[in-house]
Design goal:
Helices cover about 25% and strands about 20% of the residues. By secondary structure, it is of the alpha+beta class. It folds into two domains: about 100 residues, Immunoglobulins (Immunoglobulin-like, Sandwich), CATH 2.60.40; about 200 residues, Protein tyrosine phosphatase superfamily (Protein-Tyrosine Phosphatase, Chain A), CATH 3.90.190.
């Protein structure tokens, strides 16, 4: 008889590491030096990965752990070694069911729930700083849908995504790779199978450099990508997924109604990647925020005003709200 051990029946499991939770509870918030976002330097170990869910059972022999989102039929089958398996990349605030199969024997079914704490970090082999844009609540009581838009580091040059990492993206159903590198002489080319994933290259800048006519036109082009439902799920990346990607997502999140505190926290959580710390209190980030405030008194109004100046209409922003926002 197979006896399931962990997760316990009905347990709420954490998906973030202790280091992440400690920072969320008390962000350091200290100013940092200016970052040369076109010439990043490796500063530290990479901790931008989720805490995997640990599955265990007896007898401690090889088997298979079957996991599925409650109410859905699609099963994830994970090989277990000597009664254990560690599995990353679960949705936050979601009910799951699981069981174990050893040979022809199948165990009872148990349930567990994932902690609702955003952000949802992901493990994609060979690259870094992969997070779901979804999971954060908005100031009007809604929430950004998970599984639509992801930030990530680049997949080549300074990183090298592995075949296993590519397979993770394919299994996530990624349809579009929005590569925002190319402001200068950066190498950029598709790294995923272009018959499965469309590659779109629109070169963006970061921080105070986005408030030019050329950059605002390019922001308009990125929103053309977001407005096509056929493009989802989308991954967006620059080099580290921190500066250009961070500013781009900050504006989108602000327009959708995510709080300034959560937007700042999400930006700073890229500090767990290997490319130096980031702070919402830095001079560089202050220049970015000052630019937004020129378009509106608060962050949301500033983002809306900036996007209107880029040529994004109110009707198109309503379309994006329909795509991204869900009731809690």
């Amino acid at each position: 008889m197979i006896r399931l051990i962990t997760p316990a029946q009905g347990e709420t499991v954490r998906l973030l590491m202790d280091e992440h939770l400690a920072y969320i509870a008390k962000p350091e918030g200290f100013p940092t030096d200016r970052v040369d976002w076109l010439n990043l330097h490796e500063e530290q170990n990479d901790l931008s990965y989720p805490r995997p869910v640990h599955f265990s059972y007896e007898p401690a022999v090889d088997g298979e752990v079957l996991i599925w989102e409650k109410g859905r039929e699609e099963r994830l089958c994970v090989k277990a070694v000597r009664g254990e398996a560690d599995v990353p990349n679960f949705l936050i605030d979601t009910d799951y069911e699981w069981c174990v199969k050893i040979g022809e024997e199948i165990s009872e079914i148990r349930t567990f729930h994932t902690d609702p704490q955003a952000p949802r970090m992901l493990l994609v082999d060979g690259i870094s700083n992969v997070r779901d844009f979804g999971g954060f609540s908005t100031t009007d009581g809604k929430r950004i849908r998970q599984g639509l838009l992801y930030r990530t580091s680049e997949m080549d040059t300074h990183y090298e995504i592995t075949p296993e990492g590519k397979e993770t993206f394919y299994n996530m159903g990624i349809r579009t790779d929005l590569d925002i590198r190319g402001v200068k002489d950066e190498y950029r080319a598709p790294q995923l199978d272009t018959e499965r994933v469309r590659w779109v290259n629109i070169a963006l800048a970061a921080y105070g450099h986005i408030y030019t006519e050329e950059q605002m036109q390019r922001y308009r082009e990125t929103y053309d990508v977001l407005l096509d439902p056929q493009n989802y799920p989308i991954i967006c990346h620059c080099w580290g997924g921190i500066d250009r990607t961070g500013c781009w997502l900050y504006i989108l999140g602000a327009m959708l109604g995510v709080s300034e505190d959560d937007l700042g926290l999400d930006y700073e959580l890229s500090s767990f990647s290997r490319w130096h710390r980031r702070s919402r209190h830095s001079e560089q980030f202050g220049e970015f925020l000052s630019g937004l405030h020129a378009y509106g008194e608060n962050i949301q109004d500033g983002a809306i005003g900036f996007l209107k100046a880029c040529g994004v209409t109110e009707e198109e922003m309503d379309q994006l709200r329909e795509i991204f926002l869900e009731e809690i």
